[in-house]
Write a structure and sequence with these properties.
single chain; five-stranded mixed sheet; alpha/beta; 2 domains; Alpha/beta knot; 236 residues; seven-stranded parallel sheet; Ribosomal Protein L25, Chain P; elongated
Amino acid sequence: MRQIPRLFVSEALQTGAEFPLEDGHAHYLATVLRLDVGAELRLLDDRTGEWAAVVSEAGRRRIRVRVGAMIRGRETVPDLWLLTAPIRAERFEWIVEKATELGVRRIVPVLSERVNHARLKPERLRAHMVEAAEQCGRTALPELVEAAKLGELLKGWDSGRALLFADEMGGAAIGELGVGVPAAILIGPEGGFSEAERAAILAVAGVKRMSLGPRILRADTAVVAAIAQFQAFAGS
């Protein structure tokens, strides 16, 4: 049995709405999946939720859809931010993909002294987020914001949001920190933060040093480990 395709679209969805799909989606459905009129779809708009839909018109390069009933509303996303330094392009895309699957609300690329890969492509990163959310059953996407310098982030930090610093120099297990949302997880670059940056991070009111275990982890592995641990212990 063929799985029903799930697609995020830019249109606001409501019962009875009818519109053509964007070129990329149309090509995928018409050329790759070879869907015909009447084929079922699931559409998501990252605003209202997930909707049933059918193909109302099909051509070699054109797909038009008609929206049916809402299946479920947009999920509630825990107020967890990921603050992480950009690394090599394909690995940072993997980070964004996994953060989407694991359920963070906001992704903030953090520029620090030892960041060597700051050329981000937001549209490409968003495409990875969308694909991950479509495949793993999510109805919401993280907010991807512009890269920010570490010093600027720390200077304007909201004391009402816990800052969990995944510190290579040590810290406490997430279960011992007793932290819930709102929160943010901070992961450093491949070379780690400088001593001056570490001092600035540790000077933030309410910062908590989070241990990811006894092993030295690559930045992308640390991201997944930290989010998974937080979600498990915070119940979100």
